[in-house]
Amino acid sequence: MAERQSSRLLLESPLARVYDVVCRTPRSGYGALMLNGVTQIGLPRRGVFLIERQGETAVIDTNTALMLGPDDEYRVAHPNGDGDEGTVLALPPDLVEDTIGRIQGRVGNLRPRDHLAVCVVNRALRDAGPDQLEAEDATLLLLGLLSRAFADTGNDDRTLGPGQRLRIERARALLASAPTDRWDLGALGRALRCSPFHLARQFRAATGETISRYTLRLRLAVALERLAKGEQDIAALAVETGFSHHSHFSARFRSVFGITPTVAREILTRRRLDAARAVLAGLESSARS
User: Fold this and answer.
1) Single pTM value for the model
2) Which are the contacts of 74, defined by CB distance < 8 A and separation ≥ 6?
């Protein structure tokens, strides 16, 4: 099935091109083999898709960042029918090597505050006619933060066999396809035909975090994207994203992002590059401390 995808160019300069990409492809298996032409980094803001490259399958969700190098061949599948949205950076190879390191197809672990930075930059660049220098500055600050996503995570999935790693990717796809559902280890284990104990242990070995923490980040990413679009009813948002009540949601949101949902909405809907740069500079400073 052909990809139903649209993209909006947010920045075009000799330094970088930034796109806001929306995919509306229905649930489907792997499509035709595609050839990547430039070095690019994909940063999902909503939804999930699967990518197959060099015989390896990876789940790309809001907790991940995807790098593709020139001449990378890949196929894409869609495990649900809700589509996905993301920000794509197309960059010169030397810039990527300077900030991130080697250029090759790989998946990085996007930390929560880095995900916040992606959303802030995307919303700011959508503002009509931003100053190119300011836009490039914000993009470079974001790229600097992303260097952490592709660093060694310290996960020890070498203890897992191919079948176990495939099981964890299936678990990630299930969670990312329905992050606001009330998951429990028993239901997830039955869906994957694995004991809850072994699933929890293998998941942590593969991802470096617990299933509950991973799911929390997926839920908060859903909430963040809705706040970026101006969601006003925080109480309803809390329930609709899988939290028991407003105060529970707000406390978890603040513990992960360092700000309240209301403050996040103000930042994301301000759509000003100077505000975006201030947020990015603060995140960069906290990353170094």
Assistant:
1) 0.89
2) 33, 34, 36, 51, 52, 53, 68, 105
